[in-house]
Amino acid sequence: MSRLVVVSNRVPVPDKAGNPPAGGLAVALHAALKERGGIWMGWSGKSTGEAEPGPLSIMNNGAIQYALTDLTDRDVAEYYNGFANRVLWPICHCRIDLAEYARREMAGYFRVNRLFADRLVPLLRPDDVIWVHDYHLIPLAEELRRRGVQNRIGFFLHIPWPPADVFFSVPVYESILRGLASYDVVGFQTDYDVDNFAACLRREGSGDRIGGGRFRAYGRSFIAADFPIGMETAEFAELAEDAAHDRRIREMARSMQGRDLLIGVDRLDYSKGIPERIAAYEAFLKGNPEFQDKVVYLQVTPKSRSEVPEYAAMQENVASLAGRLNGSLGSLDWVPMRYINRSLRRPLLAGLYRMAKVGLVTPLRDGMNLVAKEFVAAQDPANPGVLVLSRFAGAARELDSALLINPHDAEGTGRAIARALSMPLAERKERWEHMMKRLLSHDVTHWCADYLSHLEPQRPTLVPEPAP
Ligand code: F6P
């Protein structure tokens, strides 16, 4: 079996005991790396404060080697806070209005990708399989090909791919498309994303599907298909069951005083629809006064990308919406919404999901949304809660037994919340069982193996590749 080389912007480096950080993706990729041996390369998350990026720092952990690079302040500003998170992120989430195009930042994005390629090439062996993750590193394969790398290279996009008209608003859209065509396998979260990508190539006249999940574009043939990411379903379900013994979970349950819990867990990001969710909760409470004082909505929202102005502005906005809601509807002994602005550890989260009667996952647009899957996996099979899920989350393609809502429709979402809270046990069980079956058969290990089976060298491309 060939070695695996994973490249991603951030690298989940293990703790001193060698254990990878919690979370399905980190665990699954570490398992694949451990089995095959290999490298995980990426940004250290630090900047040098100097004019030059630092040297590559290498750490060995059994069969896995971590190769981390510091970036300069300018790199972080232009590549990460700039083009990746102020152009590609908003565009892929259909927010042209929030995209800030600056030539300097676009150049910085391509410069950092060249740096990654320069640093990776000396570490590679001819039969390594390379798997690049996410929108920060789209041009990496093209840069590697320019340096003579002929290995199989795959890419997986964790976020959505937008419709052609939205994507074409990026001034360097053609370089991005050509970058994707340099991979052997381009993985998306859903079939909708693949269709949007195909439409971009067609409209541009640069390529199209050639059948069997294959595309031909910019003189190369490659696979582009959906590989919906899964989670560590069985392990998370166990975590949630064990959490019943956790002191903090018992204290939380006591503090509810018999009220039902609704839960939302999201990074503080405008794509997550948090203000719209608060409005829907308010519409629900006003439209169903019999539920007032009978429910509590817990929103757990760690801060994210605070150096990007749109994210900083959101912090103020969500905090003031939560305060306004509690001020107008709360009473002496009832706080309708609890708002926590930091992350919670996974075992505690698992216990909270299990305690909740309703999971609110209502992004305006989301590649997959693993919170939706985690909420389902954490439920008590004998008395499961109900998932209220945005139809604009990738997860809705698989979890179609959730109550699917349009997050822009506050009243409609409010009605779905009321329905979820009143749903009979038999219907809750039937919906949950259907979703859980899917999550167990399509977990993150299945996802990883499925993707890699498409990337393995024994799967030749239909059309021979031109010499690099
Ligand atoms: O969902 C896309 C993603 O980049 C994830 O890979 C990552 O965990 C998350 O967003 C957080 O982003 P950041 O690394 O910018 O904090």
Automatic annotation (TrEMBL):
- The domain of life is Bacteria
EC number, UniProt record: 2.4.1.15
Pathway of action: Glycan biosynthesis; trehalose biosynthesis
Major enzyme class: transferase
What keywords sit in the KW lines?
A: Glycosyltransferase, Transferase
What is the catalytic activity of this protein? D-glucose 6-phosphate + UDP-alpha-D-glucose = alpha,alpha-trehalose 6-phosphate + UDP + H(+)
Pfam families linked: Glyco_transf_20
GO molecular function terms noted in the UniProt entry: alpha,alpha-trehalose-phosphate synthase (UDP-forming) activity
Cross-referenced PANTHER family, in alphabetical order? Answer: BCDNA.GH08860 (PTHR10788:SF106), TREHALOSE-6-PHOSPHATE SYNTHASE (PTHR10788)
| Described purpose of this protein according to its UniProt entry | Probably involved in the osmoprotection via the biosynthesis of trehalose. Catalyzes the transfer of glucose from UDP-alpha-D-glucose (UDP-Glc) to D-glucose 6-phosphate (Glc-6-P) to form trehalose-6-phosphate. Acts with retention of the anomeric configuration of the UDP-sugar donor.
Outline the subunit composition: Homotetramer.
| Family membership noted in the UniProt record | Belongs to the glycosyltransferase 20 family.
- Name the chain's protein: Trehalose-6-phosphate synthase
What is the protein's species of origin?
Halodurantibacterium flavum
- Gene name per UniProt: otsA
